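User: I'll paste a sequence; please echo it back and then give the predicted structure.

Assistant: Echoing your sequence first, then the prediction.
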Amino acid sequence: MQMNGRGLIFILLVLRISDPSYGQTSAGGRIATLEYGGGGDWYANPTALNNLARFASDQANTPVLPNPGSVPVGSPTLFSYDWVHLTGHGNITFTAQEAQNLRTYLQRGGFLHVDDNYGMDPYIRKALKSVWPQSEWVRLSASHPLFQGPFPFPKGLPKIHEHDGKAPEAWALYHGSRMVVLYTHECDLSDGWEDANVHNDPPAVRLQALRMGANILHFVFRGQTPYLP
């Protein structure tokens, strides 16, 4: 039977995403920034992921490939990554095709980390409802494994930037017993991953942000155990 190039690519993608470790290589996991529509600045914090990848690899025994790029939410290339990061300040929208693509990605082993860069909360909750309509947000307590190691956070999510002074919150969406979305709110975690001269955060605050980010990657790449808070 003859097969055109498009059909072969489709089969290769199906074979790849059927493996829970499809985004990982022997050199480390693959991460990327998620591009989205609606006018929000998905491109915020351009230095963040590369710094986090380096820190996790060097300090948390969690190999991550360097020089992360970005990937559109509706692209088949999304399935090349096992961890994607979404941030910004404003509106976020997904088309029906984009929502379906992201849903399939999460169902087949992918992970989404959403970090509110201040101001996106009402938009991201609405957008993710189109992706995961039947699942409810679960607030994570300080006892969750995310906060236990490799770096302990006995009080839970750290506060990186103050803004309106509210307490930081970690929320999750689950597919069965597996966490598929982590939402860090009132925290500005990824601002703390940026180059030191971008926000001029004190070294101790920036270290807290990088350590928390490394915990997230470790939780995802080293194999989360079934857990509900």
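Residues 80 and 169 are 29 Å apart (CA to CA). The chain has one domain: 22-221.
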